Amino acid sequence: MTQRRSWMFLALAVALAPIPVRAQDASLWLTKPDRSALLQLQTPPLAFAGGDAAGQVIDVDEKQRYQTIDGFGFALTGGSAQLIAHMSAEARAALVKDLFSTEGDGIGVSYLRVSVGASDMNDHVYSYDDLPEGQTDVTMEKFSIEPDRADVIPVLKQILAINSKIKILASPWSAPLWMKTSGVARGGVLKPEYFAAYATYFVKYIQAMKAEGIDIDTLTVQNEPLNEKNTPSMLMLESEQADFIENDLGPAFQKAGIKTKIVLYDHNLDHPAYPLSILKDPKANKYVDGTGFHLYGGTVDAFTQVHDAFPKKNLYFTEQSVTDHRNEGEMDVAKPVAKIVIGTTRNWSRNVLLWNLAADPQFGPHTNDGGCTGCQGALTIDGDKVKRNLAYYTIAQASKFVPDGSVRIGSSNADAIPNVAFRTPDGKTVLIVANSSASDQVFSVRFHGKVIKSSLTAGSVGTYVW
């Protein structure tokens, strides 16, 4: 009896003893420039172990915490929505699931940009208050989002049925033509006497979309306010945007109880003085959530320059066209991942949006005389046929693994292997590594004192999840 009791106590002690916890194995999702691996899970998984690190070392430290991530995605331009809307019901449903679901092969796109009225990637120019020449409508009695009912609104509703929490940023390319000095779609300036009417225009837009079940999370005041070359487009200098925000748009949103965030600038990183000048104005500053940037000019460290000056204001990456017009051959995926996905998030951006989601084989639809004639979509849609392009894989390496609510954490920088790390809401660690060099790279990832050894061929991108 005594011996049996001793064995019982021994068994209980063993059962209650702490089990040594080793770091989880890391899964690797790989995209190679020769397309032999396209967001492909590699087997077997990589095991964290003790021992010395080999090659360059990326130290990942979740105690270093930076900005919260709102998501990764694309611009759902009017042209993109038109192409998707014209697909067969079966093909459209499959595509929407692939893009916005987190299950199976879905890439989990969690952020979208739409245009307020037409962008240059629409097949024609329109606003929500178009009038015959010489007429005005300062009270917005004729305002209507009817032009979006053919494609943008139904496609958004189908997306929201897959992911009801997707964030939507809206940007205007131009005010209604009767509000502008030029009276035409391309260029011109918003007349000061219509500032209040234009603020009402935005209030009406957000309210009308909400009535359709579509919440606009964020509004940029003007797409590319220093670019008059697109059709449509509109010039808006710093002083004009500050005046409009502090005296018209901000108060109009406040009076209407609108919680949509106001984001200023929405243009290239080569002119951080534009947002800084507005943020320095306390009357405008109080209405502004943050700044949006593009990367057709400038360098990503301008993000950090604005962050350091106004650390309580958010930063957003709102547009970049990523194109590869080669039909066959290698896909240069590491460079846009390194420059955009890694570069902007390492410099405080809460999101990454590429331009644009879809185009047809001729890079349309687009407006005439000022529409983008060479903007390749993340997808090329030809009827029900879908080709996934460079921009698709650039975003997918992040969007599939880094959901809304993730937080960027510390990871040591390495010149040959740019990287960024995140902690997801469900406690996973995600490390995105891009080998943008011309040679293969061997490196180690160190986490909690354990190491995994890995390598990436030249031009490849790996997303490590554990």
Strand tally, please? 20
Shape: globular
The CATH architecture assignment of the largest domain turns out to be Alpha-Beta Barrel
- Mean pLDDT, all residues: 94
The tally of helices reads: 11
| Amount of beta strand | 15-25%
Total number of distinct structural domains: 2
Strand order of the largest sheet: 2-1-20-17-16-15-3-18-19
Low-confidence stretches: 1-23
Name of the CATH homologous superfamily of the largest domain: Glycosidases
The percent range for helix content is: 25-40%
CATH-defined fold name of the largest domain: TIM Barrel
Main sheet record? 9 strands, mixed
Q: Report how far the terminal alpha carbons are from each other.
A: 48 Å
- CATH C-level class of the largest domain: Alpha Beta
CA-based gyration radius: 25 Å
Which structural class do you get from the secondary structure elements? alpha/beta
Keywords: Glycosidase, Hydrolase, Signal
Signal peptide: 1-23
Family: Belongs to the glycosyl hydrolase 30 family.
GO molecular function: glucosylceramidase activity
